[in-house]
Amino acid sequence: MKKTQFLLLLLLLFSSLLLHARGNSSQKNAEELNAKTSVVVSIAPLSFVVEYISDGVIPVYTLVEEKESPETYNLSVKEFFLLEQASIFFSMGSSMEKETIFEFERMLPDWLRNKNSSAVVVELAKNVELLHLDETVVDLAVDPIVDPAVDLASDPAVGLADEDHLHADEDHLHAYDIHFWLSPDILGKIATQVHDVLAQQFPQKKLLFQKRYESFLAELRSLKQELVGETEIKKENYVFIMHPSLGYLGELLSFRQISLEWLGRERSLRDFASIEMLLERYRITTLYAEPGSSVGIVDSLAEKYGLQIIPIDPLKKNVLENIRELARILQDNF
């Protein structure tokens, strides 16, 4: 009996110590998380810029990591907690008074005002003039490069979407290329915003931020010189792509996109006659596909037209290397 009581006492003592240890551990983890959470960034490529300039002295948390889609993203409880503790939130926001670029960000400014009113919210896209798709994507209905002698918008033999369909959403974000971080020039402006905010919020580290900022700009200048000077991409090249995400590189490297998506929708079946004509005319043998592209569509196009499928990801975190890699891939396949 005494032995049994003794064993029960030992068991109770052990359980109490275990619960106490777990409680201390949970409290310690929570305290560490609170202490570490300083900056939250919306998407991975922009997070790279913040991490580069802050150089590890400020913990940086990314909401939408690589290989995740910001267009279908939903915030978790943990991420709301991170935002509640953040001193700065670098968001995409909206561009030039247009609507918020990513849906998951839409309610965050109001939420932060209620839950973390001291947080500085920086909309990195606010002063960016987005490229209109008309400037970077072949308009199958009206573009004369297909055949100047054929009125593609009305010829049922060629079969194209009508002009109302093509331009009805002209002021909607679907009519613009939102992947502005793939432009070295715009990326430099983003770095300036990041540097200025970090220096203001953490003045004790401003000398470090200035040094890292200058280093980032130097890398950008070198990258742009490399692309323009050494990437021998001729004028009037065309890229066949699922989603029109390479417009900013197209401006820099002088190519246009033939996309399977237009104004946020897949092309109609009637459009494919024109696409087939363009593939033949420009001897295109490559289809660029981003994460999330329909496997069925990609595979059927590859089989029908004998295309090589090359995966690309505009949302890779290391945006400097991604721009360089995308340019190399393009050069190798023209």
Q: Strand order across the biggest sheet?
A: 2-1-3-4
Number of continuous helical runs: 12
Instruction: Please report the distance between the alpha carbons of the first and last residues.
Output: 87 Å
Topology, number of strands? 12
CATH homology superfamily name of the largest domain: Nitrogenase molybdenum iron protein domain
Task: Give a verbal description of the structure.
By secondary structure, the chain is of the alpha/beta class. It folds into 2 domains: 137 residues, Rossmann fold (3-Layer(aba) Sandwich); 145 residues, 3-Layer(aba) Sandwich (Rossmann fold). The chain is 47% helix and 13% strand. A 4-stranded parallel beta sheet has the order 2-1-3-4, with helices on both faces. A two-stranded antiparallel ribbon has the order 5-6. Helix 2 packs across helix 8 and helix 8 runs parallel beside helix 12. About 17% of the residues have low confidence.
Give a topology summary:
Layout: H1 2-36, E1 39-43, H2 44-54, E2 60-64, H3 77-85, E3 88-91, H4 108-115, E4 120-123, E5 131-132, H5 133-136, H6 163-167, E6 176-177, H7 184-201, H8 206-230, E7 237-241, H9 247-253, E8 255-259, E9 261-262, E10 265-266, H10 272-281, E11 286-289, H11 295-305, E12 308-311, H12 319-332
Parallel strand pairs: 1-2, 1-3, 3-4, 7-8, 11-12
Antiparallel strand pairs: 5-6, 9-10
Helix pairs in contact: 2-7, 2-8, 7-8, 8-12
Provide a concise account of the structure shown:
This protein is of the alpha/beta class. 47% of the residues lie in helices and 13% in strands.
